[in-house]
Amino acid sequence: MRATGAWSVGAYRRLGAAGSAATAAGGWAVGTLPARDPWGLWVPHGPAATAAGYALAYGGLTLLVVSWWLYGRAGASVRHTLVTLVWWAAPLVLAPPLHSADVYSYIAQGAMVLEGHDVYTVGPSVLDPAGPGGDAAASVGGHWTETPAPYGPFFLLLARGVAWATGGTIVPAVLGLRIVALGALALIAWALLRLAREHGRSGSAALHLGALNPLLLLHVVGGIHNDGLMVGLMLAGAVCALRGRWITGSVLIGLAMMVKSPAALALLFVGVVVGRAASGPLVRRVAKGLLGPGAVAGAVAVLATLLCGTGFGWLGTQSVAGRIHTALSVSSDLGLGLGELLRLLIGTDPDPVRSAVRNLGLLVALVLIAVLARRSWTGRTEPVHALGLALLALVALSPMVQPWYLLWGTTVIAATAGDGRVRNVVTVLSAALVYETQPSGSTPAYGFVLAGLTCVAGVLLLRRDAAAPAVARVPGPRRPEGAAAEVRTGTR
């Protein structure tokens, strides 16, 4: 293991573990605590504990981000990075939910399926406050109490199992879903290593950006977002497709779609892999690529829906999240600003203007995705790398954007991109977006300030790194052989 200055990868591992532990400890006081916890574990502890909790949470988060940034430049091996991943994830396992209340929605929706409610027409408010999942329903954030589930039947089947096994009791139910999240993390790490090998990239670099990423640790392990499961299944499907097992890959992508629908985009690029590998006339190859993976994934979707027993209502709830305005959505911000400007100038209703701009953003995203599909078909871009770029384009132009959505494309890019602009952009954004939400799940104005400052710091550090080789080429005093050997000590 290579040393960087006076520090080694082992030191950065320990530093990051301390940061993760501080983040988790702070979360016990200022995390996304439930409205009611019958066990009395995840409850508020007063102003002094709250102040100390914020200091620990933000201090630990910053320590984790800095350690991650430096660790990536310290030359760790794959094995060392995998062990470091365990070290950094472990402190978050028993913490309360961090930076999001979504896990309470998952528990409540699982209890709704268990009791026979239609999760695609009503929200968690239908649950009996004193019954299974009632505490989770009371802890669901704001308008989501009345919102139907936007998730697929496969995930609801898992949530139902957790609700059944735990009776919907808050602490064990949260920990049950965190076990699912840890399984997703392991699947992501497995797939990253294999995708990196397929693309001739560094396995340790892929793990660093795709799995050790603090944004992923914070929101998949800490926040228990089901995006981690969607990404893990999607990446595993891509691995199978690249190895010639496209039917198995399409099954996995179909399951990923039945967690969250954006995974369906992977079918287009798996179709490119299938079509390029097929023999025969061009029309036959294109037809096989377009229809084969889609047919397999569609069959999986139908089977998952029938097994879950929730019906096909998920087809009509995929846009419910898009009704929410989030400041990270460029198209929503532009639409809102333009609509308000026209309202002031000529008195028009701002809502149609906002909707038009948001729809235009999605149209631009579709055009970019089509261009990337064309480039991957002609061999100008590797199909899986094009998938990562397409997911980033979809997120950037979506009418609703949350910080953890960046992970959809980042995990793919981590295994397919070399050192370059795209990798640098997602690295800086990953470091910055951890600050966008509070540990309690709210989105304060200062979160955007902290994220902006982190972006500036990241850009400056990248420029310094880029200038370093030029400085190194300037003639200077020759280092004695003994000094060089000292620096190399302990590099493996």
Describe the model.
The chain is mainly alpha-helical and 492 residues long. Helices cover 66% and strands 1% of the residues. It has 20 helices and 2 strands. The chain has a two-stranded antiparallel ribbon. A hairpin with a 2-residue loop joins strand 1 (3-4) and strand 2 (7-8).
Question: How do the helices and strands line up, and which of them pair or pack?
Answer:
Blueprint: E1 3-4, E2 7-8, H1 9-30, H2 47-71, H3 78-89, H4 102-115, H5 134-139, H6 153-166, H7 170-198, H8 203-210, H9 214-222, H10 227-242, H11 246-257, H12 265-277, H13 282-308, H14 330-346, H15 350-377, H16 383-396, H17 406-416, H18 421-433, H19 445-472, H20 481-488
Antiparallel strand pairs: 1-2
Please describe the structure with a list of short key phrases separated by commas or semicolons.
about 500 residues, mainly alpha, two-stranded antiparallel ribbon, disordered C terminus
Largest sheet: 2 strands, antiparallel
* Percentage of residues in DSSP E strands: under 5%
Supply the number of helical segments: 20
- Average pLDDT value? 88
